[in-house]
Design a protein that fits this description.
The chain has 281 residues and is of the alpha+beta class. It has two domains: 12-171, dinb family like domain (Four Helix Bundle (Hemerythrin (Met), subunit A), Up-down Bundle), CATH 1.20.120.450; 186-275, 2-Layer Sandwich (Nonspecific Lipid-transfer Protein, Chain A), CATH 3.30.1050. The chain contains eleven helices and five strands. Strands 3-2-1-4-5 form a five-stranded mixed beta sheet. The longest helix is centred in the middle third of the chain and has 22 residues, at 143-164. It is globular and about 55 Å long.
Length: 281
């Protein structure tokens, strides 16, 4: 596949089936399923569901309803401050949600996620986004990217739940392909401080039905991302689609990386991709 500039990814119609699939799963979960640990740190299944409800309600409030987000309780002058702020508000909601039953969480998520699907399906892909995609290093983003980032949030958290309760994943590979194609947009930012000779290239090969190929190319002063696979690369990283989302969304333990990732060429240039994350961390 010849190298091409990345194109817009339209996830607007994907929110509804993914949200509905999660609701169906939650309706059938026994009480013990809600208390299962997940790969999302200390969060149990019920905590991940609560977090998904939180981000859904926030998006409806801030985006659809035009409510200004409450400011941080203390000045946020750095990326570290912003991460701390996001972690704090996430933790506050999850803690409060422990007073809610699984039925209340599921019913509320079902309604809110359907309203969010309605909203996103009505939005244009072009134009400025409400929120910039910070993990891609952007100060302003296009609307499709902001919507797509929200879809990656929904998809990867519902997959964390499915892994925790040993449920099968969603059958439609288009969903995971969209998640990976959006997540790799953060790679130039992940490589921003990596020196290299102009013209050097790092290829990412993702196999499987949701896979694809992408190439990072070093210019005079920065890295750029291309769709396709360069013929000659300084480093070449190969992994399956299921491992790719786990790596980029902090669900792949470091102890397992070498078992599922193949690296050829420069280990130095491959290493930053192994540390890249398409979430706020």
């Amino acid at each position: 596949m010849p190298l091409q500039p990345p194109t817009q990814i339209d996830t607007r119609a994907m929110f509804r089936p993914v949200s509905s699939g999660l609701v169906t799963l939650l309706r059938d979960l026994p009480p013990a399923g809600w208390e299962q640990p997940t790969v999302a740190g200390d969060w149990l299944v019920r905590d991940v569901v609560a977090h998904l409800l939180d981000v859904t309600l926030r998006r409806l409030s801030f985006h659809r309803d035009g409510m200004a987000p409450p400011p941080p309780s203390r000045p946020s002058d750095s990326a570290r401050d912003f991460v701390a702020f996001i972690n704090d508000i996430n933790a506050q909601w999850v803690c409060a949600s422990k007073r809610l039953s699984p039925r209340v969480l599921t019913d509320t998520f079902e309604r809110a996620s359907a309203e969010l699907a309605d909203w996103f399906e009505s939005q244009p892909l072009g134009g400025p986004a409400l929120f910039a995609v910070s993990w891609a290093g952007e100060q302003t983003s296009e609307n499709w990217f902001d919507i797509g980032r929200e879809f990656t949030e929904l998809w990867h958290h519902q997959q964390q739940i499915r892994l925790a309760v040993r449920a099968g994943g969603l059958a439609d590979s288009r969903f995971l392909h969209a998640v990976i194609a959006i997540a790799v947009r953060g790679l130039p930012h992940a490589y921003r401080n990596v020196p290299a000779v102009p013209g050097q290239q790092v290829v990412l090969q993702v196999s499987g039905p949701a896979g694809g190929q992408w190439t990072l190319t070093r210019g005079e002063s920065e890295w750029t991302l291309w769709q396709g696979e360069a013929d000659e690369a300084t480093a070449r990283i190969a992994l399956a689609d299921d491992a790719a989302w786990k790596l980029l969304f902090n669900a792949l333990p470091e102890s397992e990386m070498l078992q599922v990732v193949s690296i050829k060429g420069s280990l130095e240039l491959a290493a930053p991709l192994m540390r890249a994350r398409s979430v706020i961390v």
